[in-house]
Amino acid sequence: MFWYKGKLIQGNILELEIDDPGLLYGATVFTTLRVYHQSLDSRLTNWQAHCDRLHSSIQNFGWQQPDWERLRNGAEKLILSFPVLRITIFPDGREWITGRLLPADLKQRQQNGIIAWLADAPQFERSLPTHKTGNYLPAWMALNQAKLSGMQEAILVDAAGNWLETSTGNLWGWRDGRWWTPPIDAGILPGVMRSQIIDWQQRYYQPVGEVIWDKDWVQELEAIAYSNSVVEVVPIHTVVSQNCTLAFDPLHKSLEQLTIIND
């Protein structure tokens, strides 16, 4: 089942007009959130931050804002069956909400880490990278290429080869006694979980450093991970590229500073 335009629909078919810009051009914005304790008001769900990000993109694009009360009503109905919601907004304000389960192997990934592929080719660069739009084709292609090679994630890079983010989340790296992440102006998505982690580090540990991740800088990283609102934080123990393979410690003590945010 899913929610669309104020109605809970049983089934898996969404009908769109053939000239719908969301269908033709990926003209939508979306956010994906994990619902904790079946509550949109849980601190960990961070409902308002997800709505604020949608609102900001919609305002930036000059689109129509959705009926926020109706949108929340749809989300409230779906969280009874799903721990993960994907909320999509069309240019005319239509809302579309789908639900899904958490990845079956999430705990294993969090405990043991994953292998990531360095997607160092121009076709994998995301368009409008600071917004989460329906045109997610480059990231989707990179992730699928990684899976074809037996890996679980892809790391996207810019034209100079600097590491930006993964196909589904933000990057974190530990070196010089602190956590680092690429800056927003490098061309990455300002993830909701990224903001939570930065705030957590500021309050309880030390400020997160923001720096360009060039080819030389990443060589000195002791541990790396990626984050998003669904998987929280997942370590990356190996990064495979055309030229070399880099290994990192998926059990590094510093990773506790990232995962403790959900305690």
From TrEMBL:
**What GO cellular component is one of the record's annotations?**
cytosol
Query: Matching SUPFAM superfamilies, A to Z?
Result: D-aminoacid aminotransferase-like PLP-dependent enzymes (SSF56752)
Give one GO molecular function term: transaminase activity
Q: Name one GO biological process term.
A: carboxylic acid biosynthetic process
Question: Which Pfam family, any one of them, does this sequence belong to?
Answer: Aminotran_4
Q: Which key words are in the record?
A: Aminotransferase, Transferase
| Protein family per UniProt | Belongs to the class-IV pyridoxal-phosphate-dependent aminotransferase family.
Query: Which PANTHER family does this UniProt record tie to the protein?
Result: AMINO-ACID AMINOTRANSFERASE (PTHR42743), AMINODEOXYCHORISMATE LYASE (PTHR42743:SF11)
Query: What's the protein name?
Result: Aminotransferase class IV
